[in-house]
Design a protein that fits this description.
The complex is a heterotrimer of chains A (341), B (364) and C (82). Chain A folds into two domains: 13-155, 2-Layer Sandwich (60s Ribosomal Protein L30, Chain: A); 171-329, Phosphoribosyl-aminoimidazole Synthetase, Chain A, domain 2, CATH 3.90.650. Chain A is of the alpha+beta class and 341 residues long. Chain A has helices at residues 20-33, 37-41, 74-87, 108-125, 180-186, 206-213, 229-241, 256-265, 284-296; strands at residues 54-62, 68-69, 72-73, 91-103, 128-137, 145-155, 171-174, 195-196, 219-223, 244-248, 279-282, 304-310, 317-320, 326-329. Chain A is globular. Chain B has three domains: 5-60 and 178-245, Rossmann fold (3-Layer(aba) Sandwich), CATH 3.40.50.11750; 65-170 and 256-299, Rossmann fold (3-Layer(aba) Sandwich), CATH 3.40.50.11740; 315-356, no CATH class. Helices cover 39% and strands 17% of the residues of chain B. Chain B has helices spanning 10-23, 35-43, 63-66, 69-79, 102-107, 118-127, 144-157, 172-180, 194-199, 202-211, 222-238, 257-266, 296-299, 315-319, 343-346, 351-358, and strands spanning 28-34, 54-61, 84-88, 111-114, 132-137, 162-166, 188-191, 215-217, 243-245, 267-274, 278-287. A five-stranded parallel β-sheet of chain B has the order 2-1-7-8-9. A four-stranded parallel β-sheet of chain B has the order 4-3-5-6, sandwiched between helices. In chain B, strands 10-11 form a two-stranded antiparallel ribbon. Chain B is globular, with a radius of gyration of 21 Å. The mean pLDDT of chain B is 90. Chain C contains one helix and five strands. The radius of gyration of chain C is 15 Å and the shape is globular. The two termini of chain C are 26 Å apart. Chains B and C meet through helix 1, helix 6, helix 7, helix 9 and helix 10 of B and strand 1, strand 4, strand 5 and helix 1 of C.
Chain lengths: 341, 364, 82
């Protein structure tokens, strides 16, 4: 006797028990969203065929709070984050796995909304979730919902993209305005609540990357500036490639609202997270061509060349300030804290 | 952003730099008193735009930097009490006490909440009647009146689970200590902008008149700071020592009397320890007896903590402008932004933190 | 030690107000402001409180001096002492 559990209340420990309640949960909520032959087989492992070549694999855990925010939710993040990690490696994302840890008491409506967002993101990116798992933990042992996604993708021959490949002279392209996601999240945090029309920029960037790769065989490095923002991403590459990076404050696209919110809270936009942007390091001869191509994509309309790789200041990132001075952009410490001083 | 963007104009900045270079014919040491100025100066890369004859040193106007270890320890001790919620500005979270920090205490179960204004702490108390909310009051005269206003509101509302641990300090005693110290050689002060919004320019008049040191009250945008430097250099070259307000849009000579009155209603001055300065008389703020109910000092039995300034740390000399970060044996070796020993490195406004970030950049 | 940002008042509600800067708006408090604030006024906000109402004329004055190539010394302390 199949119970229709849609809309009725919350996740209970039974749902994680592996028994009937669990099966009903999967069949009512998960399977319909991610319908595909691999998943429907309900085998312990999905068996996929992948084209010849190098396989890229990545995994990420998503624990964002709040789980719903302007522009998306933890589900959209879980898919796009992993798709983007594969994309910036130069891989075409193919298959994802999705693991869920649900806190007893999570509203089924909320779960449904999150899964719908994942379905939409998968569809847009053109990836499929071929295997998954769900566990339920007692109230208080998890914060509503945690998601892990692992993704695999295929890298075409001749594509060699790595954070250690940046070369002196490379131009650095930022695909759009920075800081949108982090500020959208902060605006929902209790105690810091401020009103803004800002939405998270969470988006799958694989199509944009594929377009750019057709324009140049000399894209050396890419990174998505998530936690720690552009500052962290650039510092990582400077260290990995043992090069210096110089960027131009005046060239970096930032929305007025992000700038203002950062002023109010005492944050540096360079350290604020992004979930739908990437940094691309391109040989100078191809940079304009790649930039133009990027701007044709809906997620790259605001792309700008923000700087270049330099042979000095190895391992460091410096910025020409709007005033004509120079400052060092350090690796951000940790969680950005609002200041009054 | 209005009243901000206009003061970030590159052309104007360049003209001011030119003006400074043309005016400056001697070695000049200027102190920016306020930590927020230190951050603004380094964030905009201003030092390298100035002629080599001008040296900028950072002063003690960084509330986090001058908070002694013992105060942090006491806040941490409070956070360990049952049922207590600590409400604090983000600035304090990472500062190390003798053993640990508030941030680290969170991972041990302490309930520490970041708030943006003192009213947030008030509402936290209203919404959690079964808990005790202690707000960590840190900051100078810009912040103290805001905390005082909330303390008065708490008393009016009969809120009995809200109190403040006052670590507030006032600036004038530190300024006077600087100018009366024989080791300190400052030719001009870039005076704090927003503290002056509250206290006016009275104290600077004393500094200028009695010690012949020019004072210019500056805003926080790069153009504001450059203009203030230009005014100071020109005064010094003319042998003058006057008080000028560059930050006209925010500061008047008499200050904000209403804010001062609110502050004076709730707080009285007391002797207070400044990290690096030792005890400065009448330099701290404590709650008056009338407001004992809101005074965390009086409400809680905070166990005396044996606090220790870290050995080898010369933050005191740095805060007084006597030494610079490279003079410290710990700088960059044992004391880094990731592992700060002294307060000057902990606070993003601290001289050492700013220096650390900036060191090594010398664009000719 | 005093992060303060100019914000414009959009609404007033007793001792609180809604203020905005660059498309972001926030609740602020007027308890320590020494002047009557009106909707449309710009105030400097520190730690959630308005501490000063910005006088348009005074702001313009500073800017005007910039326009004059900044070679004119600013007003000295207006109470006569210096």
């Amino acid at each position: 006797m199949k119970q229709d559990i849609r809309g009725k209340g919350t996740i209970t420990l039974d749902h994680g028990g592996g028994g009937r309640a669990y099966r009903e949960l999967i069949h009512t909520y998960f399977l319909p969203r991610f319908a595909n032959p691999y998943l429907e087989k309900m085998d312990d492992s999905a068996v996929v065929e992948i084209p010849q070549g190098r396989v890229a694999m990545t995994t990420d855990c998503y624990v964002v709070d709040p789980i719903f925010f302007p522009g998306g939710n933890i589900g959209s993040l879980a898919v796009c984050g992993t798709v983007n990690d594969l994309s910036v490696q130069g891989a075409r994302p193919l298959f994802l796995s999705a693991g869920f840890i649900l806190e007893e008491g999570l509203s089924l409506n909320d779960l449904e909304k999150i899964l719908i967002a994942m379905e939409e993101a998968c569809r847009e990116a053109g990836v499929i979730i071929v295997t998954g798992d769900t566990k339920v933990v007692p109230k208080g042992k998890a914060d509503k919902i945690f998601i892990n996604t692992t993704g695999i993708g295929i890298i075409q021959p001749g594509v060699d993209i790595s954070g250690s490949n940046a070369k002196a002279g490379d131009k650095i392209i930022l695909s759009g305005t920075m800081g949108d996601h982090g500020i959208a999240i902060l605006s929902q945090r209790e105690g810091l609540a401020f009103d803004t029309s800002l939405k998270s920029d969470v988006a799958p960037l694989n199509h944009m990357v594929r377009q750019c790769l057709t324009m140049s065989r000399e894209i050396h490095a890419m990174r998505d500036p998530t936690r720690g923002g552009v500052a962290a991403a650039l510092n990582e590459i400077a260290l990995q490639s043992n090069v210096g990076i110089r960027i131009n404050d005046a060239a970096i696209p930032v929305k007025e609202e992000v700038r203002a919110a950062c002023e109010v809270l005492g944050l540096d936009p360079l350290s604020v997270a992004n979930e739908g942007k990437l940094l691309m390091f391109v040989v100078p001869g191809d940079a304009l061509r790649v930039l133009e191509e990027m701007r044709k994509n809906r997620y790259g309309k605001g792309a700008q060349i923000i700087g270049e790789v330099i042979p000095d200041y190895r391992g460091r990132v410096i910025m020409a300030t709007a005033m004509g001075g120079t400052r060092i952009i350090d690796m951000p410490l940790g969680e950005q804290l609002p200041r009054i001083c | 952003m209005k009243y901000v963007d206009e003061f970030r104009n590159r052309d104007i900045a360049e003209r001011l730099v030119k003006r400074i270079r043309e005016a400056c014919h001697q070695r000049i040491t200027l102190m920016e008193v306020c930590g927020t100025h230190t951050v603004a100066i380094h964030r905009n890369g201003l030092p390298e735009l100035l002629p080599k004859e001008i040296t900028l040193i950072s002063g003690p106007g960084c509330p986090v930097c001058v908070t002694p270890v013992s105060d942090i320890d006491r806040a941490i001790a409070l956070s360990q009490k049952d049922g207590v919620i600590i409400a604090t500005f983000g600035d304090l979270l990472r500062v190390s006490g003798s053993q640990t920090s508030l941030l680290k205490q969170c991972s041990l179960g302490a309930d520490v909440r970041i708030v943006y204004s003192a009213y947030d702490a008030f509402y936290l108390a209203e919404q959690n009647p079964e808990r005790q909310v202690v707000f960590l009051g840190v900051g100078f005269e810009t912040t103290a009146p805001t905390v005082a206003a909330v303390i008065r509101r708490a008393r009016e509302a009969g809120l009995n689970n809200f109190s403040v641990l006052s670590m507030h300090k006032v600036l004038p005693p530190a300024l006077l200590s600087l100018v009366t110290s024989p080791q300190v050689k400052i030719n001009g002060f870039i005076c704090p902008g927003h503290v002056s919004t509250i206290i006016g320019t009275g104290i600077y008049k004393r500094v200028a008149a009695d010690f012949h040191i020019p004072c210019v009250v500056a805003g926080f945008e790069p153009v504001d700071i450059l203009q203030a430097i230009a005014l100071l250099v020109e005064q010094i070259e003319r042998g003058e020592a006057k008080v000028e307000i560059q930050y006209l849009r925010a500061v008047s000579p008499e200050g904000n009397l209403k804010a001062m009155a609110i502050m004076d209603d709730v707080f009285e001055t007391s002797d207070s320890i400044w990290r690096g300065f030792g005890m400065l008389p009448q330099s701290g703020l404590k709650l008056k007896a009338d407001y004992a109910q809101c005074d965390a000092e009086r409400r809680y039995n905070i166990p005396p903590v044996k606090s220790q300034e870290p050995p080898g740390c010369i933050c005191g000399d740095i805060l007084r402008g006597i030494k610079r970060p490279p003079d410290c044996s710990l700088f960059k070796k044992l004391c880094t932004p990731d592992n700060p020993v002294g307060a000057c490195m902990v606070s993003s406004e601290g001289t050492c933190a700013a220096y650390y970030q900036f060191s090594g950049v010398n664009i000719a | 030690m005093c992060l303060g940002i100019p914000m414009q008042i959009q609404e007033i509600n007793g001792n609180a107000a809604l203020a905005a800067v660059g498309g972001t708006s926030r609740k602020i408090y007027l308890d320590v402001l020494d002047e009557e604030a009106k909707v449309g006024d710009y105030v400097i906000v520190h730690a959630g409180f308005a501490i000063h109402r910005i006088d348009e004329e005074e702001a313009k004055e500073t800017l005007k001096l910039f326009e004059d190539a900044g070679y004119i010394a600013l007003n000295q302390d207006t109470d006569g002492s210096s």
